[in-house]
Each structure stands twice: as structure tokens, then as C-alpha cells.
Amino acid sequence: MNSTTVAALKPAATRSPYLAVVWAVPIAVLLGILPFVFDQYRTIQLAYGLIFAIAGLGFNILLGYTGLLSFGHSAYFGVGAYTAAFMVKYMHTGSMELFLLGTIVASLLVTSLFGYVCVRYTKIFFSILTLALSQVLWSLAFKFFWVTGGTDGLRVPTPKLLGMSLGEGEDKIYFLSHAYYYYVLALFIICVGVMWLIVHSPFGKALQAIRDNETRARFVGIRIRRYRFIAFLVSGVFTGIAGALWVPLNGLTTPDILYWPFSGEIVFMSVLGGFRNFTGPIVGAVVYNYLKDFAVGFTVYWQAFMGVVLVVLVLALPTGIVGTAKVLAEMARRRFAR
Amino acid sequence: MTALLQTTKLTKHFGDTHAVDKVDFTIGEGEVLALIGSNGAGKTSLVNLCSGLYPPDSGTIHFRGEDITKQTVQNRISSGIARSFQVVNLFDDLTVLDNVALSIFSREKMTRRLFTLADRQEAVWTEARDILRQFGLEVKSDQRAGGIAQGERKLLDVAVSYALKPQLLFLDEPTSGVSTREKAPIMDVISSIVRSQRITAVVIEHDMDIIFKYSDRIVVMHQGVVLASGSPEEIRNNETVKDAVFGPTHA
Lengths: 338, 251
Prior knowledge:
The complex is a heterodimer of chains A (338) and B (251).
Chain A: H1 3-9, H2 17-37, H3 40-66, H4 73-91, H5 96-118, H6 123-143, H7 145-148, E1 154-155, H8 172-177, H9 179-199, H10 202-212, H11 214-218, H12 224-250, E2 252-253, H13 260-273, H14 280-298, H15 302-316, H16 320-337
Antiparallel strand pairs in A: 1-2
Helix pairs in contact in A: 2-9, 3-9, 3-12, 3-13, 3-14, 4-5, 4-6, 4-12, 5-12, 10-12, 13-14, 13-16, 14-15
Chain B: E1 3-14, E2 17-28, E3 32-36, H1 43-51, E4 58-63, E5 66-67, H2 73-79, E6 81-83, H3 96-107, H4 122-134, H5 150-162, E7 168-172, H6 180-196, E8 200-204, H7 208-214, E9 217-222, E10 225-230, H8 232-236, H9 239-246
Parallel strand pairs in B: 3-8, 3-9, 6-7, 7-8
Antiparallel strand pairs in B: 1-2, 1-4, 4-5, 9-10
Helix pairs in contact in B: 3-4, 3-5, 5-6
């Protein structure tokens, strides 16, 4: 067989990591430049978007790659946020790296427990179970106010980044829109890289096989429940990391972050961007964040506005922003190829 | 001939239906055995029990002398048992090449790896392409498995199982749902691969021309029990089989 034929036999879309790097580097550079272009408010909004994108990546390994729709991801986001808050309150630490380490451990513990129960089920049963379990955490945060601060929440002051704290007299907003933004951006790039590797690994292929046809996956020797469980852990840890990064930016965590509407927002972000694409939840999270910000400023009925957007989206762009962009790009390519 | 798989009084009931009823069934190493019978005879149920899709109510299954009755599907696959399905079971959103590669990744226990690029495993892709070439599907490699013709899907279903390197391969109606014209070419490909690789195969099939042409031995099932077993010639001339399976018009 000659080399041309062999090349033709390779599925083109995913065979080269270099192609991904060609796309990723200019975007990373652009994200690095934006704080110099945007005002501080817009930069902080972008930091929120990147954090939600990490949560979206975590969510999408379950929905897009394993075929499991979770309505309980607010729980894992909240675990990250509350872990950081508890570390401040009870361990008197302000190190962001320790927050992240603590979050990874706490997320693994909680997702192990929840995942053990949830991955035994699929479809609506899985969704309802994840929703119910997230509400258990919400009610704990709500009721155990002497530990969690109840509805007042817990404050998280500006953390130390890489052992360095905010300088005396330094503006907190400036810190958040510069040093902290770059910290978030670095974590975002690491998370994207790690998740890209996972979904393009043999393990990622096995998840897609489970999503497509569980019976067949079983009969090529894949242990369905075990793989779903690992995907659940990965998903929870990514979402937890997002929660830990979010809380210093927000300055406070309350039980609202554990409440089910926030799980719905994570689903919304993924649907908006397109959950059958790797980049869909990333684009969806950033766009959703700006869209919500715009809607809140535009009308007091912003929830209704967002609802209309979701309905239009599902009807008009079922493959999301990225999915639609890919279809349009393909159409344009064919047109110019004639 | 050494027995590769042996069932003893294997039983499975679904409510009042005796799908498989105290079946003693033996497959010799290297045989191509056809399992025939009318609809509801218990053929697919027997294969489902042997492959681990569901557990028996009673009885035992031995594979290479080892009791596998309570083993999981995955352990049976590791032992060397694979199967294809009556209704094609593929990963429709993945490419044809990915479908076969997944079996190889799983067989080599590589699906446990989270931080290795699948596309960098050249040995796997080379083997997957080689298998597709054997099945005449190499030109379909990049297409979605859900987008190829029914006959090709049937072959791919077998190729996915074959990629597990089984010693015993159950083929549940490998030519069902394809045109009469396509049946013989599909069976030619499967038969040549199975025989050249010395794989023991159990074929469930309704087309008697195919059965008589490709099998070494035929086991006839009727209402959950084994009615007869013998060479194609013996089965062709068996009056009980003629009445029970082929009906009076065949007699």
C-alpha cells in the first residue's frame, strides 16, 4: 500500500495534535493580550467566562463524550468553592495552590460517593439522581449555617498566587483583572490541554463507544460502569477546580452556587456552544457569561430573555454555536471548491 | 476433536417460555458449526447465555475446561469468546476504522490509558487497517459506521468481533437483512477468514443453502431443546428435523 493510500485511510479530523496546537496558540496569545485591550470590568467578565469554560469542559466529558446528562454539576462547582472557603475559615490559609489541592481531594471524595450511586443508571434516572444529590449538598450548606455561614455565605479574600500576596495598597480590581486573570488563564490552558488529551486517548475513545452503543461497548470488553465512574471523577474534579477559581473572583460563596438552577446554567452553556464538539462548551461558557451580563443590564426580565434565547437556540441551532460554525465553514469550503 | 465449549443442562426461562431447556451442547475446536431452528427455537438465547449477555437459570458452561458460567462478559472476551449480533451493533458515530481500533485497544487493555494519544498508537491503526482490508472494507475506513450499506455493516460487525482475536466466535445471522445476491459474498469473506485463522465459529442462520455450504456440523434446536446434531448430509436426511424445522413442504 502506498503512502497516499495510507494517509487517505486515516480519519482526518483527529489524527494530529499539531493541528490542535496551530489553533490553540493564536487563541491563547489573544487571550493573553485582551487585558491590555479590555477595561478591567470586561477582563474580569472574561475571567468568569474562562472559569465557567473549565466547568463546561468537565460537564461535557459526561454529556458529549459519555452520553450522560448531569443536572447536578452545581454540587461539584460548590464543592470547589466551599473547599476554598473552608480552608480560609478553618485552616487560615490563603494560598491558591492549596485551595486547588484541597479542591481536588474534596472533589474526588464527593464525586466518588455520588458517582458510585449515579453511574449505575443512565438517561433520565441518571439526570434525576445527580439533581437530587446536588440538592442534598445545597440543603446541607443551607441548614448547617454555623459551619457554612448559611445564606450569608463565606467570604474568601484575595488569595496568594504562587506564594505571593497582593501588595500593600494595591487595587483589588486591578489584581483580579491582571495577576488573577493570568492565573485563571494559565489554569484554563492546562485544563484544556489535559481534557484534550483525555478525550483523544484510548480511554476517551472507550467513552465515545459507551455513548454510541453500550451493548457493543460491553461486547468489545469495555467495563461500562468503571469507565463511567472514572469519567464522573474527571468531570467532578474539573468542575471543582472551576469552583475554587471562581470563589476568589466572586469574593464570597453562598448556597446559591449549589442550587439546581446553576446546574441548569452549566447545561445551557454546553448546549449554547455545542456539546458534540470539544470547543463547544468553552465557547458556550464565554458567550453565555457575556450574554447574561448583557441581559441583566438590558431588562429586569433577564431570566425570560435567557429562556427565549435557549428556546431559539434549541430550535434554530441544535448543534450549538461551534456545530453551526462548522457546518457553515464546510458549506463555504464546498462552494469555493467548485 | 477436543471440546472447546460445553454446556451442561443449560436452562433459561422467560416467564412460562422455556427459551433454553436443559441443553447439552458441545463445540469442537476448529469447527464451523451451524445452529438452526425455527423462530423461537432458542438459538439466540443459547448464544446470549454462552456469550454472557444474560445469566442462565441453571446449568453450566465450560470453555477450554474452565467453568465460565458466572464470568462477566469482559472475562469471557479475555478468555477468547466474541460475538456479532443479529441486529447490527456498531458505534455509529465513530468511523469504520475507529470501530475496529476500539476492539484492539480494548483487547490490549489500552482503554485504561487516559494520558496517551490514541492516534499515536500506530501498531493499533495498522492492525485495524489490515483487518478492514481482509473484510474488504478499507475504502470505507473514514466513513461513519452509521453511514455505510447494510451488507458492509454486517461485515463490520463481524470485523469488530474478529479484532478481539477470539478462539470462539458466535455469528448471529451474519447475512440477515441483506439481499440474496449479497449473502454468498459476505459468507465467503467470513468463512475464508474464520478458516484461515482456525477460529471456531458458531453460525446462526436461516438460509439453508448457506448452512449446508459453509458448516462442518449442524445443531438443530426446537422449542428450547437440541433436536438433532450431525453433518449437513445427516441433517438434510433427518425426517424429524424435516418435520419440525423445514415443515411438510420440505419433506
